[in-house]
Amino acid sequence: MNDWVVRLIEQSGYLGVGFLMFLETVFPPIPSEIIMTVAGVTAANGKLDLMMVILSGTAGAMLGNIFWYLAARALGIQRLRPFIQKYGKWLTLTWRDIERAHDWMDRRGALFVMVGRVIPSIRSLVSVPAGLLDMRFKSFVIASTIGTFAWTALLAGAGFQLKSSFEQVDQFITPFANTVLVTMVLVYLWRLATHKGS
């Protein structure tokens, strides 16, 4: 995959960076860690401008973020109510939890989205609860843009400074991403063990 990413960025420049980041957001198995690090290395080699790389990556990712937000908002949480009521135990959710989450999103949704955008493993999923729980679109876009810009700047800047391959940056990011995944699994298992239906 790395070679394909390198070729596309070298051939398509900023458009390629934006397109890849859009795909990464819509189809998470394409990792932003590779895309933006390679783009940063390309900028370090003088073929691209670092700030334009960051802005292109942010713009592409934001298109994907907005796509998932609008899709989730069009679906709406009410349509999922029968599913949640039937499989609530396995989701570790009750409808009362959803109502509380809706209120929480009104108060702290911007912080949730902003911070979520810089956490590996969940950053591409943040748009879904924001859309389902009717977070205001303007707040969503502002918070997502800030968080996404920070993430793309971090990765592109790392590639630019190291002037090396994704593997070096991955040595720092992968342990953190794995910790996030393990924590999510443990939290889910704890919630499953302690879950009480409504």
From TrEMBL:
Query: From which residue to which does any coiled coil extend?
Result: none
Q: What subcellular compartments does it reside in?
A: Cell membrane
- What keywords appear on the UniProt entry? Cell membrane, Membrane, Transmembrane, Transmembrane helix
Which Gene Ontology cellular component terms are annotated? plasma membrane
According to its record, how does it sit in the membrane? Answer: Multi-pass membrane protein
Q: Where is the VTT domain?
A: 30-159
Q: Does the keyword Transmembrane helix apply?
A: yes
Which spans are transmembrane here? 12-30, 50-71, 140-160, 172-190
Q: Which domain of life is it from?
A: Bacteria
* PANTHER family xrefs: ALKALINE PHOSPHATASE LIKE PROTEIN, UNDECAPRENYL PHOSPHATE TRANSPORTER A
**Name the record gives this protein:** DedA family protein
UniProt organism field: Sphingomonas sabuli
